[in-house]
Write a sequence for this structure.
């Protein structure tokens, strides 16, 4: 891997870090396996691209993309909560429907954003007016990092509030949560809308940094998010919500670096088309390893107890 | 064949009364509690607390009125959350309602709240006040059950519901939890309903005892009549009222 490949991995890792944090909220905090992400990520990209192409402010476009993602999440949550459809199935239904919805929104299977004013061009212009000139790639990384940090800190604050704590209890012990007066349905609606707004934000940033939106960029997004969460958990083991989210972001970056290494290594002889295979193997390995680690830990603990 | 867990139960419980509920398996004890906590709803009739009809309220809404200590210590607390986080959830019990969200965006754990929790927990004399940040899952069943009791009284409530809350504990721990229960209920003059499998416990604790059989109240004693009653008397009465022998060993043992 050369420098530009590493930079690209970090850039993608930061963008998909938002997906990872969203997956952490739905899978880990709410215990809600949500596949909507494969539809809400391209939805965010599509909404942002269409609005930017029609001359709207890129920040406004990004915000509206997030609202669109939240709406998609609400559909999944409503299907589960009010329609009594299994969470996994509910999210797959929404994801499937979103493919058509995204085509409607975009009006074409893909949209180019070259030479359009994106949030990154905005920042470049602002920096230039201050006399600072940095490479476009650097400004993309810096801005994405700033956005990501804001999101993670905001979520950390939210999860520390009474409502956030109630959301965490909802995913851990529903019976206890209801007995403590928590409306668990509301928590699911809010949480899934929140995580999907993050997927859409990630999609909107992706479209603007890569200068295109494609209706087919969705499938596989959940795999990246899951991989990031699992790799993060394998590396950082903490009960702190903040550290767990930071671990997710680090997991996303690690994911793209490992993928890059695997695809670029001459010894393995892998090609770009092997990407999905490498991704699946990577996740499976991380999951098996974390399981092995748990059993080893348990074995050590029980031996210690036996020895007094 | 349809089997009704409860048939025409009419109970009027005065404020501050500590009712112990006893009965063999399938008598309807659990269903009675479920009707109170909102987990199950009666087909007919109503549940009124303090002149408010709560029959149509769901469990979270009832949490403002009803505090619940479960039989299984794992169920009443959230294993992955820390002691103080569990306490904070209980602290917000009346306010966890979505329509009271204005309180929902305050931090769950502040310095003053931690101090308050520390005070509540130190009463237990288990040294847990120094472990507030530990996940509650690391504690023993007995410790978790005492914390469940503390959680129940952290927020104001109108009825305390205890669902065989000592049944899963070893005898020593069960006695300790029971002592604590009696102390808390007496101190705060709580209106309490405790389901128990032990006849001894049913007579020992509380101010009134009711016995359920096949979904009906077959015995309802309080005051002088109750304080003079021995376990043997209770067994005799059960036989007379229900027309059958006590078939559940757990009722007699202890």
């Amino acid at each position: 891997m050369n420098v530009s490949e590493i930079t690209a991995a970090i850039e993608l890792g930061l963008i998909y870090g938002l997906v990872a944090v969203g997956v952490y909220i739905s899978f880990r905090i709410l215990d809600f396996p949500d596949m909507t992400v494969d539809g809400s990520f391209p939805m965010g990209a599509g909404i942002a691209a269409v609005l930017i192409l029609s001359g709207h402010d890129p920040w406004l476009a990004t915000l509206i993309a997030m609202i669109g993602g939240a709406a998609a999440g609400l559909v999944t949550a409503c299907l589960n909560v009010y329609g009594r459809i299994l969470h996994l199935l509910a999210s797959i239904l929404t994801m499937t429907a979103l493919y058509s919805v995204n085509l409607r929104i975009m009006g074409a299977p893909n949209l180019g954003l070259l030479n359009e004013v994106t949030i990154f061009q905005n920042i470049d212009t602002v920096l230039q007016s201050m006399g600072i000139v940095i490479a476009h790639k650097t400004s993309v990384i810096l801005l994405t990092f700033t956005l990501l940090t804001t999101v993670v800190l905001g979520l950390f604050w939210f999860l520390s509030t009474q409502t956030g704590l109630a959301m965490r209890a909802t995913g851990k012990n529903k019976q206890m949560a209801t007995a403590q007066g928590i409306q668990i349905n509301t928590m699911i609606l809010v949480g899934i809308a929140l995580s999907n707004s993050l997927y859409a934000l990630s999609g909107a940033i992706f479209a603007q940094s890569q200068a295109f939106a494609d209706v087919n960029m969705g499938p596989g997004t959940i795999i990246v998010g899951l991989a990031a969460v699992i790799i993060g958990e394998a590396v950082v083991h903490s009960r702190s919500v903040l550290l767990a989210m930071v671990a997710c972001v680090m997991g996303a970056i690690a994911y793209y670096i490992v993928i890059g290494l695997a695809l670029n290594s001459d010894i393995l002889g892998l090609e770009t088309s092997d990407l999905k295979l490498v991704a699946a193997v990577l996740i499976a390995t991380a999951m098996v390893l974390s399981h092995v680690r748990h059993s080893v830990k348990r074995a050590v603990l029980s031996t210690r107890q036996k020895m007094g | 064949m349809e089997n009704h867990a409860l048939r025409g139960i009419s109970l009027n419980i005065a404020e501050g009364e500590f009712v112990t509920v006893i009965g063999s398996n399938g008598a309807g004890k659990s269903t009675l509690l479920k009707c109170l906590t909102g987990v199950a709803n009666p087909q007919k009739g109503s549940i009124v607390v303090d002149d408010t009809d709560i029959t149509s309220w769901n469990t979270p809404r009832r949490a403002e009125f009803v505090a619940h200590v479960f039989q299984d210590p794992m169920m009443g607390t959230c294993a992955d959350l820390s002691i103080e986080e569990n306490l904070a959830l209980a602290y917000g019990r009346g306010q966890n309602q979505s329509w009271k969200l204005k309180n929902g965006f305050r931090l769950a754990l502040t310095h003053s709240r931690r101090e308050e929790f520390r005070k509540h927990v130190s009463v237990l004399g288990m040294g847990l006040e120094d472990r507030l940040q530990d996940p509650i899952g690391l504690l023993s069943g007995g410790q978790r059950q005492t914390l469940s009791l503390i959680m129940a009284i952290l927020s104001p409530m109108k009825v305390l519901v205890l669902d065989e809350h000592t049944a899963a504990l070893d005898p020593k721990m069960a006695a300790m939890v029971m002592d604590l229960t009696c102390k808390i209920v007496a101190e705060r003059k709580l209106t309490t309903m405790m389901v128990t499998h032990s006849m001894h416990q049913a007579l020992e604790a509380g101010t009134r005892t009711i016995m359920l059989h096949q979904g009906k109240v077959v015995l309802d004693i309080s005051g002088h009549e109750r304080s003079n009653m021995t376990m043997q008397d209770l067994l005799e009465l059960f036989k007379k009222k229900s027309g059958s022998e006590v078939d559940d060993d757990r009722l007699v043992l202890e």
User: Anything to note?
Assistant: Chain A touches chain B through 23 residues (CB under 8 Å). Chain A is about 80% helix and 0% strand. The beta strands of chain A are 110-112, 212-214.
